[in-house]
Specification:
CATH architecture of the largest domain: 3-Layer(aba) Sandwich
Distance between the termini: 15 Å
Number of domains: 2
CATH topology of the largest domain: Rossmann fold
Helix content: 25-40%
Number of strands: 18
Radius of gyration: 21 Å
Strand content: 15-25%
CATH superfamily of the largest domain: LarA, N-terminal domain
Number of helices: 19
Largest sheet: 6 strands, mixed
CATH class of the largest domain: Alpha Beta
């Protein structure tokens, strides 16, 4: 059970600070009375809107007076932060105490989840073992206390984000990230979204039990929702060291962050914030979170002022440019025949996740990528100035809006903070919709 569980229509920052003080007090009582070396594991800047960076700063300041406190943003294979981004995300935490996760060269083999378990968990969709390859400082340096901080929200790989995703994706090595993303893609993105325990989550739960039981860790999980002023605010905080801490947050997120429709939507317009989303690797959350709501033949318009690349790494960017978002059948055919796709299997999975499968159109209005670059990966291109002038996102509230010439569209200001679906798509799918 969670050590702390609080839910309200809006949890103020004053109250959040108090809850972080309670978290430290509980950690002292349950894990280590006088921690000398502390590790904080927050998300990276692509989750900045969650306030997790500010919570991390609060925890750092609560502990730094008596302990040596270090921070490793759980980047996975995302681009490392610059010092300026660290300040933007984590405020006053000294930059020298914030360390970069090296997903290629900075990890250690811990073990594996056997292929038989993976096969059973995925119902035959994936038949390979899951190599557990994790951040070397996490596994090899002495820690008295480890605090994971994160935002629980619907997610395309794990059903809901955070909890042990911080370890197995955020601090995972290349082989693990590739194997996990490919397993999720094999199960189907629309079978994962919004389920409490997806096949890959079940695999990670097994790995946590088997390989991470010795870590002196806990989770700080937050839930956010929009208030009656259309502001994204904290509505839940769950703190503890067990699976139920995640499940409590995920159940609240399922209730508050999934928007259901009786009929599919012909047109959705959304914004991927320019100070968070620089690649389609992360900006494609706009596709993931809306695909179950979009009508056949419909259109998703993505206004992305910060967009300047496709992949988070040069080789992943090159692979996306080479193959494009062309649908699962073609990608799987290419995957069987091309060594570069097999080597970067997580990127191959991303190409499947980010494809509309020809069912609806995706139009990007990017801040930096050209017409030819966008259309070269099988998206449509729109000029960002013209798109902003037409849809006036700064004047829209989440929900139905109308352009000056009468076009009706559904506007989503922060797609990464939720999931939108028709009732039919959510409930009538092979994976079902787990209600527990």
């Amino acid at each position: 059970m969670p050590w702390i569980a609080e839910r309200d229509t809006e949890i103020s920052w004053e109250r959040l600070r108090g809850l972080m003080e309670q978290t430290v007090a509980e950690a002292r009582r349950r894990i280590c009375a006088r921690p000398k070396r502390v590790l904080l594991l927050p998300p990276d800047i692509t989750r900045m809107h969650s306030g997790a960076g500010r919570l991390t700063e609060i925890l750092y300041n609560l502990l730094a007076g008596e302990a040596e406190v270090h921070v490793i943003p759980t980047l996975g294979q995302h681009v490392p932060h610059s010092p300026e981004e660290n300040r933007q995300m984590f405020g006053s935490i000294p930059n020298e105490r914030i360390h970069t996760h090296d997903w290629r060269g900075g990890c250690v083999d811990v073990g594996e989840v056997p292929a038989r378990f993976v096969d059973e968990a995925t119902q035959g969709a994936a038949d390979w073992s899951m190599p557990i390859v994790l951040n070397r400082p996490l596994m090899e340096e002495p820690w008295d206390l480890i605090i994971n901080v994160g935002h629980v929200v619907p997610h395309e790989v794990l059903g809901f984000a955070n909890h042990n995703k911080n370890y197995f994706i955020g601090l995972g090595g290349k082989d693990l990230i590739c194997a996990a993303h490919m397993a999720a893609a094999a199960c189907g993105i629309e079978n994962n979204l919004g389920n409490l325990i997806t096949p890959v989550r079940a695999i990670f739960n097994r790995a946590e039990e088997e390989y991470l039981g010795q870590l002196p860790d806990l989770y700080v999980q937050v839930v956010l929702a929009r208030n009656d002023r259309d502001q994204l605010v904290h509505t839940g905080v769950y703190v503890g060291d067990d699976l139920e801490t995640y499940l409590g947050a995920a159940r609240q997120s399922r209730e508050q962050n999934i928007t259901l429709f009786d009929e599919p939507i012909p047109k959705i317009v959304c914004v991927m914030q320019g100070d968070e989303f620089f690649s389609t690797w992360v900006a494609n959350k706009s596709i993931y979170r809306t695909r179950m709501a979009l009508a056949d033949g419909g259109e998703l318009v993505v206004i992305a002022p910060g967009l300047k690349r496709f992949g988070e790494q040069e080789d992943v960017d090159a692979l996306i440019r080479k193959y494009g978002y062309v649908g699962t059948p073609r990608i799987m055919d290419e995957y069987a025949r091309n060594a570069d796709m097999q080597d970067l299997a997580h990127a191959t999975a991303h190409l499947m996740h980010g494809s509309s499968e020809g069912r609806f159109r995706v139009t990007y209005a990017p801040g930096h990528l050209s017409h030819d670059e966008i259309e070269g990966v099988n998206f449509n291109y729109a000029d960002i100035s013209e798109t902003i002038a037409r849809y006036r996102p700064s004047q829209c509230k989440q929900g139905w809006n109308t352009t000056a010439d009468g076009e009706r569209f559904y506007f989503i200001p922060t797609p990464s903070a939720g999931l939108w679906a028709t009732r039919e798509k959510l409930y009538n799918r092979p994976s079902g919709f787990v209600e527990n």
